[in-house]
């Protein structure tokens, strides 16, 4: 695999992601966002700006990569650009199709992250952009699933109402974030979940149980992170 070509593909895919997000993006929710109980406050999506910046830094850094770093870029291959293409496409296709593309982006990011963390060398600097990107894509996948269901007038799934599903997914997401932190020694991933969950609590203040569940999930995640961090520094 020609690493120079791969770097250029990374850049082109990044440009597509930006153009799709800022120029071509449509209203995926179709005006149903107010009815989605897993929807965070609008400010939460500003984290995309940080993610785009971190990805830009990574893309610049790849052109000055050392030998071991180039080997890692080659190992990642086309999984990373594919994730950006899928993510960008998710904001320009129809509401129902969007979930397929964002889920595809999530899968490719999981593969990319696994490749980075399974290297023997210290890949912390390489990992940071992908920790943010993967974490927020995880949340976005859940949010988009709720948006698609509500947009198609599905308020109950397997006999369980959206209200209950929102609480279940909040707790599952918190457990996933904690597990991810312990498994990968990655504090960024759960902190992004905390960011998203605080925004959900802010947005859902009128729905008491969802608000309390989001707040409790944030608290649990933070307490576990602090506890694990203290243990690792003893």
Describe this structure in words.
The protein has helices at residues 3-24, 47-62, 67-76, 79-90, 95-117, 124-151, 162-184, 188-203, 208-232, and strands at 156-157, 160-161. With 234 residues, the chain is an all-alpha fold. It has one domain (3-232). It has a two-stranded antiparallel ribbon. Strand 1 and strand 2 form a beta hairpin. Helix 1 packs antiparallel against helix 2 (47-62). The longest helix is centred in the middle third of the chain and has 28 residues, at 124-151. The chain starts with a helix and ends with a helix. The model has no long low-confidence stretch (mean pLDDT 84).
Tell me the fraction of residues in β-strands, as a range: under 5%
Spans of at least 5 consecutive residues whose pLDDT stays below 50 are: none
Helix content: over 70%
Order of strands side by side in the largest beta sheet? Answer: 1-2
Order of helical and strand elements: HHHHHHEEHHH
Mean pLDDT, as a whole number?
84
Major sheet attributes: 2 strands, antiparallel
Spatial shape: globular
Number of domain units? 1
Task: For this entry, give a set of tags.
234 residues, mainly alpha, two-stranded antiparallel ribbon, 2 strands
Summary, kept brief:
The protein has 234 residues and is an all-alpha fold.
Topology overview:
Elements: H1 3-24, H2 47-62, H3 67-76, H4 79-90, H5 95-117, H6 124-151, E1 156-157, E2 160-161, H7 162-184, H8 188-203, H9 208-232
Antiparallel strand pairs: 1-2
Transmembrane segments: 41-64, 76-93, 99-118, 130-151, 163-180, 187-202, 208-229
Protein name: Transporter
Organism: Pontibacillus halophilus JSM 076056 = DSM 19796
């Amino acid at each position: 695999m020609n690493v120079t070509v791969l770097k250029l593909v990374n850049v082109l895919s990044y440009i597509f992601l930006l153009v799709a997000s800022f120029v071509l993006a449509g209203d995926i929710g179709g005006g149903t966002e107010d009815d989605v109980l897993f929807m965070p406050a609008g400010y939460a999506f500003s984290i995309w700006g940080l993610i785009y910046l971190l990805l830009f830094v990574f893309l610049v850094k790849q052109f000055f990569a050392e030998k071991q770093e180039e080997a890692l870029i080659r190992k990642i291959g086309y999984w990373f650009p594919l994730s950006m293409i899928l993510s960008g496409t998710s904001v320009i296709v129809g509401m129902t199709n969007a979930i397929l593309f964002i889920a595809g982006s999530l899968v490719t990011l999981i593969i990319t992250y696994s490749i980075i963390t399974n290297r023997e060398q210290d890949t912390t600097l390489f990992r940071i952009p992908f920790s943010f990107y993967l974490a927020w894509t995880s949340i976005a996948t859940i949010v988009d699933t709720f948006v698609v269901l509500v947009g198609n007038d599905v308020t109950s799934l397997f006999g369980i109402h959206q209200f209950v599903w929102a609480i279940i997914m909040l707790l599952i997401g918190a457990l996933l974030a904690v597990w991810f932190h312990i498994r990968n020694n990655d504090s960024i991933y759960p902190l992004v979940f905390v960011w998203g969950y605080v925004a959900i609590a802010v947005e859902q203040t009128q729905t008491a149980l969802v608000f309390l569940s989001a707040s409790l999930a944030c608290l649990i995640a933070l307490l576990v992170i602090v506890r694990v961090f203290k243990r690792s520094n003893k």
